[in-house]
Amino acid sequence: MIPELDGLIFSSAGIRVGLAVLFLLYVRSILNSFPLPRGKVFLAAGWVFLFRDLVFLLFPLGILYRVGDLVGILLLLVWVRSFRSSGSSWKIAGVAGVILGGVAFLTVFFPWPLFRVGLQGTLILGTLGYLGLEMGHLSSFTSRSPEFIQNNRRLIFWVLFIPRFFSIFNPLYSGSLAPGILLPLGYAGYFLLLSRYQGFLYKDAAQRHTYSTEYIAALYDFMRTIGGAMNRQMKSQELLEYVVGRATDQLGAEAGGVFLKDENVLRVGTTKGYFPPPFPVPAITKSKLSGVEHYFQKTPIPIETTVLGKCASTAQPIYIRNTREDSRMALNSRDDTLSLSSLIASPLIVNNKLFGVLSIVNRSPGKFFSSIDFERFKVFADFASLTLESLANYSHLLEKQEIEREVSIAADIQTQLLPGKIPKSLRQRVAAFTTPAKGVSGDYYDILPLNGHGKLGFVICDVAGKGIPASLIMVMIRTIVHLVARQTDDPAKVVSWINWGIAGSIDIERFATLSYFTYDPETGVLDYSNAAHHPLVIYRIESSKLEILDTPGLPIGLEKGTRYQGVRTILGPGDRVMVYTDGVIEAMNLQGEQYEDQRLFKIFGQPGSVGAPELMDRIRLDLKRHRGTRRPHDDQTLILMIAPDKNRREKE
């Protein structure tokens, strides 16, 4: 019995079972140590291969390997399609799998063995070909983060194709070539792909961390320059040149430009480097680059037919990693004088009004912007548009000596910082309000979607001081939050980043208390970090008890080296979360009595199932009853969140 078992274990089939187990353990170890996006696809492939090889030990039929290969390739197809910006990967691959699996099974009953396995092999190679086409069609225009696939698609295809191609010449898997070499090579492709993907993600995370540090430093420099511009009334053209220069230098672009909206066209505001026109240029003009530049300066840019115009008309940022893969850039990828290799553009919008388009380009072949560049550029453009408008308003204020407009300008700036309407899908679970005491609030809050699966980030802060200075600090805080929130799952790191940027860049009197937490509805995990703000309050629906969640830490802006701590908890279905500022619990009535936290907690902890908007209305009504006719003496801000119940969580 033992010799037979040894023979089975050390046979080629037994070795393949061992390889399947190793692959599963490898996937598990990666998923346990690193949050691998789309990692469940590889885990599913590992279980398919293990099941196939175990069955083969008992029933050594060639069709098992051909069907297993087919399923493995379909899983990779799901993985590749998941990089798309839209599309139902599992549904498409599932339908394809049912059809191809049905055909493969029916071939078992064909009377001619060679024809049968040949048709099965053709199905596998055909599916591989479709996988190759899907990888070939991935671009920044159709995908969220296509760089890994774009850089490795040839390797992926050939590593998977070669062993399966040669298996056609050994259709019955006889001899030692197929069992000993070709079939184990099938695992090599998945091992190689997974290891390269893991390495890519590690490198990408390291680059994001390094790049975030450098980029935040550049943003601080930009903020200080804007502050100086307000004091010395920098001219608009000078400011535009500064914005283009900083965007171009910071992102390593070869050229950049600001294109200003003028009725139904765009006009060149300023450029740095040679920025080729996005429209045809007369042949006689193209003899010299200086002639092209002069023509571009004088010629309006059509909105209907150019990529910059598309950015303006849709008010949406555009990222074209490789112009040769985007039909909109046909002109700029064919003509030498007008050639571009990569382009990023973002609208400059304030108060729902298009100011212009900020864009950067690379011309050198093979020099492409990355998705990281695109994310940083969007943050830079958002901040640039806001500060450009703020400077224009502030200059207008100084010219007319209307100091009373300071409050209005600061309020307008602050309005831009606050999030828009809460998405319809969240309105029963999330509610927030903010009420300034005197037109301009020192409070700021934000709600950020952190991924495509419903994870949210919540930030609330109370800045010391009022008016324009406080509003600019809010701009800095908001910019940093939007820059780093999606780069890390650790709220403590986000708070530390904010403090690192604020401390030393502002007066000691301009500190702020801040609270930041994230919530993942799929797992119920809430991560929290606090910088001397009021602690987070949780009401447990199952036990009807209140919990206080807090971490130690100084207000942000005091000490640059402060490192903040984090804490984690799990929310159950229906659990409530609340954060608020001083103005809520310190609201006074006509007798000088404060509202106090215990009264707030009593409303917050009322038993029963209730939606966030209804609970918010109860709190605001009670707050109003307490205050009576007395005006608030401090800004009031409050955020509520209710964890979804089990059924709703499964639907989401």
Short characterization:
With 652 residues, the chain is of the alpha+beta class. The strands form three sheets. It has a six-stranded antiparallel beta sheet, with helices on both faces. The chain has a five-stranded antiparallel beta sheet with strand order 7-16-15-12-13. It has a five-stranded antiparallel beta sheet with strand order 8-9-10-11-14, with helices on one face. The chain is 51% helix and 16% strand.
Q: Determine the N-to-C terminus distance.
A: 53 Å
Report the CATH architecture of the largest domain: 4-Layer Sandwich
Number of strands: 16
The level of helicity is: 40-55%
Quick one: CATH class of the largest domain?
Alpha Beta
CATH superfamily of the largest domain: PPM-type phosphatase domain
The side-by-side strand order for the widest beta sheet comes to 3-2-1-6-5-4
**CATH topology call of the largest domain:** Phosphatase 2c, domain 1
Counted by DSSP, the helix tally is: 20
Shape annotation: flat
Instruction: Report the mean per-residue pLDDT as an integer.
Output: 77
- The total tally of domains equals 3
Please compute the radius of gyration using only Cα atoms.
30 Å
The unreliable regions are 1-7, 171-177
Strand content: 15-25%
